[in-house]
Amino acid sequence: MDPRFRRNISPSLMRSLDEISQMFEQAFGERAATPTGHWLPSADVFETGDTYSISLDLPGVKQEDIRLGIEGNELTLSGERPYQEPAGGKAHKVERSYGSFQRTFQLPVNVNREGIKASLKEGVLTLRLPKKEEVKPKTINIEVDD
């Protein structure tokens, strides 16, 4: 928040605004308050005719630090991006999030679980969730009777 704005607000209102801000950060996965803690990678979810696609931003996370699993109708991604203090120095500002993360997505009933694929490229994890054959869109030709 702009410091000039803070000066014109009563202390009790400022505390309330800070509490609301913290609740949003916890609920929606904004930056962790400390360099190490819990965070949520940003995700985009798309649907095409035969596939769902989930892309997650995981810069600096190694493949071996990512776990992906399905339990019931939930797909869960978890892992960790470790924080490393610079050798021979100290950090003056840390804005990137570090520590453990976890995201859970509800799987649509029409997902072919055996066909799910995951790939990690340039810090983006892409999950491809194919739809079951029987639920893919189908076009029916209309015949004209003479």
TrEMBL record:
It comes from the Bacteria. InterPro entries: A-crystallin/Hsp20_dom (IPR002068), HSP20-like_chaperone (IPR008978), Small_HSP (IPR031107). Residues 34-145 form the SHSP domain. PROSITE patterns: SHSP. Pfam families: HSP20. Belongs to the small heat shock protein (HSP20) family. PANTHER family: HEAT-SHOCK PROTEIN 20 FAMILY MEMBER. This is Hsp20/alpha crystallin family protein. It comes from Candidatus Tanganyikabacteria bacterium.
